[in-house]
Design goal:
- Pfam families: HTH_3 (PF01381).
- The longest helix has 11 residues.
- This protein has a two-stranded antiparallel sheet with strand order 1-2.
- The protein contains 5 helices and 2 strands, in the order βαααααβ.
- The chain has a single domain, classed as lambda repressor-like DNA-binding domains (434 Repressor (Amino-terminal Domain), Orthogonal Bundle), CATH 1.10.260.
- The protein is mainly alpha-helical.
- The chain starts with a strand and ends in a 6-residue tail after the last strand.
């Protein structure tokens, strides 16, 4: 599972938040959140729930499907 960056950034703008604000609200460091958003760390279900709740969007909107590897 990974974050759809377009939806993520649009949601931050709509809420008038910076990524720093979101990190503080969900209880992680800005560096950790950046790694999750950029795909350098796997997005856990718990983190997806926290982010989607803070941005007031559905988790299905926040997450992008990863391509299936054969």
């Amino acid at each position: 599972m990974r974050i759809d960056k377009y939806v993520y950034r649009r949601s931050l703008i709509r809420k008038g938040m910076l990524q720093l604000d979101l990190a503080i609200q969900i209880g992680v460091t800005p560096e950790y959140l950046s790694k999750v958003v950029n795909g350098n760390l796997k997005l856990s279900l718990n983190m997806a729930i926290k982010i989607s709740e803070a941005l007031e969007i559905e988790m299905s909107e926040l997450t992008a499907l990863e391509p299936v590897k054969n």
